[in-house]
Amino acid sequence: MLLAGKKVVVVGGSSGIGLSTAEMAKREGADVIIASRNVDRLDKAADALNAIAIPADVTSDESVASLFRSSGPVDHVVVTAAQLRTGPFKTVTMEDVRGTMEGKFWGAWRVAKHAEIRAGGSLTLVSGFLSVRPRPNSAIVSAANGALESLSRALALELAPVRVNCVSPGIIDTPIRAAMPEEARRDMLAKTAASLPVGRVGVGEDIARQILSFMANGFATGATVYIDGGALVI
């Protein structure tokens, strides 16, 4: 098993890509800690995984510091947590803009600052392909994703010998899209699938496989990998 005897913390591990990553790491022999601000969902996921649950809010310095005081030294950390609030550039509120940066960028910054990762271990951030393929009404998400990718390269130098990488997903069918009306969600996913060379949208496991590859590959650092079904080449 790839991660036998390793301790893995997945921040945002109660759903979506984070939960898929935690499940896969557990199957590969890791001792898994999942963290999330949604306590009910976190406890259910931890029970299903036989993992440790630690409530944490990435927008709080003290909450993130407490998470890593509780977890102690670890081998691998993954940050999938994000609280995205977006809209048309001219009308989106500054409260929503700041909230997106707090949840996506500064949250990852806090985790990187407080995590005690053993030498040779890894930190993996999750951005999104809007960093290089922006679309209307999502400027703040594009900016946050681009900032995360830049941060991962900088931290690969500053945190060495800890390895730091970034995974940038395309359109993924995760519970975050459940907020959309169901008909609109299905229509969007179907149209996206039809446009991609692979003929489908992504699922959490697609991204989790790349995250685990970064954990296991001791020669990978400072890299950003786009897992988007070919969206960037069409």
From TrEMBL:
Please tell me whether the keyword Ubl conjugation is annotated for this protein. Answer: no
Which SUPFAM superfamilies does this chain map to?
Answer: NAD(P)-binding Rossmann-fold domains
- Key words, A-Z: Oxidoreductase
Pfam families the record matches = adh_short_C2
Cited InterPro entries: KR_dom, NAD(P)-bd_dom_sf, SDR_DHRS6-like, SDR_fam
Checking CDD domains in the record gives:
SDR_c
Positions of the Ketoreductase domain: 6-174
* Source organism superkingdom: Bacteria
Q: Which SMART domains match?
A: PKS_KR
Give the molecular function GO annotations.
oxidoreductase activity
Protein family membership: Belongs to the short-chain dehydrogenases/reductases (SDR) family.
NCBIfam families assigned: PRK07041.1
What protein name is recorded for this chain?
Answer: NAD(P)-dependent dehydrogenase, short-chain alcohol dehydrogenase family
Give the source lineage, highest ranks first.
Bacteria, Pseudomonadati, Pseudomonadota, Alphaproteobacteria, Hyphomicrobiales
